Amino acid sequence: IHERLQHYEESKPAPVMDSAAVLAQDLSEQLKIKSENGDIKELAKLLENPHVKSLLSVHDTVAQKRYDPELPPLPEYLNIEESSVKIIRLVKNKEPLGATIRRDDETGAIFVARIMRGGAADRSGRLIHSGDEVKEVNGIPVDDKKPEDIIRILAQSQGAITFKVVPGLKEDASIREPKVFLRALFDYDPSNDSAIPCKEAGLRFKKGSILQIMSQEDATWWQAKLDGDANPRAGLIPSKQFQESRRFALRQPAATLPLQRTLSRRPSSEDRSSILSRSFTTSSSLTHNCPKGERFSSSCFPAYPLLSCPLRRCGAQSCLCQGPGPSGVGMNELKRKLLISDPQHFGVTIPHTSRPKKNQESDGVEYHFISKHLFEADIHNNKFVEYGEYKGNYYGTSLDTLRGVLTKKKVCLLDVQPHAIKLLRTAEFKPFVVFVKPPKMERLRETRKNAKIISSKDDKGSARPFTEEDFQEMLNTAEMMESQYGHLFEKVIVNDDLTTAFSELQSALKRVETGTHWVPVSWTHS
Ligand SMILES: Nc1ncnc2c1ncn2[C@@H]1O[C@H](COP(=O)(O)OP(=O)(O)OP(=O)(O)O)[C@@H](O)[C@H]1O
């Protein structure tokens, strides 16, 4: 009946009047006076029929929207506990009820542990709440039952289910909770999670999925939905705090990320003519403006969040950050291709240096040449996205040069270290961070057969063919970087075949610039 009536909910039939019973009564009185006609007699008889009278009375009740049952007053002898019992009838079809239960170890009482947002119980007008004590299900007392038995009764029931509950006192705070969106930074499968209170209620998701957090009422188990999922019912996921505490407990002593990429890069103008390869961090004497505790070292790994900060959909982004990628993986090659593909649309920054200008160089072309004193003052005033020192000279990318590219309405292509990405993750720069990673060893050997790497080990920085060690180092570094900084990357591109990787990068950028995508809420405030 419930399902059939739902059909009428859409057409919303409106009553012509809400006092049909009174009208029928009046009519019936008048018809009695003129009872000689056969038809009139029949109509009068019909209107006197108790079933018709009841039908019209029900019609009027519905038309007047007087649904609330008129309950008899509570008997005075009822004790407080009995007076707080509620009988609830829910209509359930094949989908799960959307509630989990728990048993109090001391008293054996069964409680509603949580109501899954958007589930059948939740949609039935929030009649049941977490914290309610369940006394009976379909007339069967549950105090001697295990939660599994009750779940079985519930799973087998269809149609109306009757609960007798003692309402809990706790207010359902989650109704007022704002719904937040987060990006998952790990894969989760509830069937492999021994800690989850109910595996069936768990939500499976993949790293990178956007989760709509429906309830954070429980500090350990949040309720979430996958963004865009038509199923209205939320599932359980470990809360941010809980997942991070578990990961912390399991964490291995952190390995040291090889300084290879940071230390192996060479001053650009000395080694490369291309304006795109303005890397300047080169020797082991390098110093970064990396905040304390965020260098590539074992003792100070950043706390890697497993769920991102709150997100919101937003339009185009202004700055493409590549990196940190392993040396030789092809970042400059991809950057060069992008710039050639649309020089009006993409731009790069020109670095600053404190080294003396060479004869063939011009200020503002290869570098902005400034004095060591001024460079140090700019470091002090946090004017650099990142900087380094090589052979006693400073090299760095300033925030102002980045702003200069952006004011020309260009997308700035930057190749920076993780700490710099963090610095740039603001409403002003809105970076889209791409991590370029190498393919498997066999494919590296195949694709890089004729490619040359610019050697960082010899000081002249000459180009030479890739060696097995280069490939291995590239793979190891990529793995380390992904595991430590994966949460900063919006897109991971495997640079196997260069043309394929390039078109993947191009279409990702196009999507970002033309469509909407998820960015931290804080970026959308300004
Ligand atoms: N997919 C690919 N297939 C074949 N060769 C490639 C591919 N990608 C890049 N290369 C070649 O590998 C070499 C190194 O590439 P590139 O200079 O772009 O790396 P990089 O990541 O910028 O290195 P570094 O950070 O050390 O400057 C170049 O000769 C480039 O042409």
Model description:
By secondary structure, the protein is α+β, with helices and mostly antiparallel strands. It folds into 4 domains: 2-63, no CATH class; 81-166, PDZ domain (Pdz3 Domain); 177-250, SH3 type barrels; 260-524, Rossmann fold (3-Layer(aba) Sandwich), CATH 3.40.50.300. The chain has 17 helices and 23 strands. It has helices at 2-11, 20-33, 38-48, 50-63, 80-83, 120-123, 147-156, 240-250, 260-264, 268-271, 331-341, 372-380, 399-407, 418-424, 441-447, 468-485, 498-514; strands at residues 86-92, 99-103, 110-115, 133-137, 140-141, 159-166, 180-183, 210-215, 221-226, 235-238, 311-314, 319-322, 346-348, 352-353, 368-369, 384-390, 393-398, 411-415, 431-437, 452-454, 463-465, 491-494, 517-520. Strands 1, 2, 3, 4, 5 and 6 form a 6-stranded antiparallel sheet that branches. A 5-stranded parallel sheet has the order 13-18-12-19-22, sandwiched between helices. A 4-stranded antiparallel sheet has the order 7-8-9-10. A hairpin with an 8-residue loop joins strand 20 (452-454) and strand 21. The longest helix is centred in the last third of the chain and has 18 residues, at 468-485. It is elongated, with a radius of gyration of 35 Å. Residues 253-305 have low confidence and may be disordered. The structure holds adenosine-5'-triphosphate. Residues 265, 277, 279, 325, 327-333, 447-448, 451-453, 495, 497-498, 501 line the site of adenosine-5'-triphosphate (ATP).
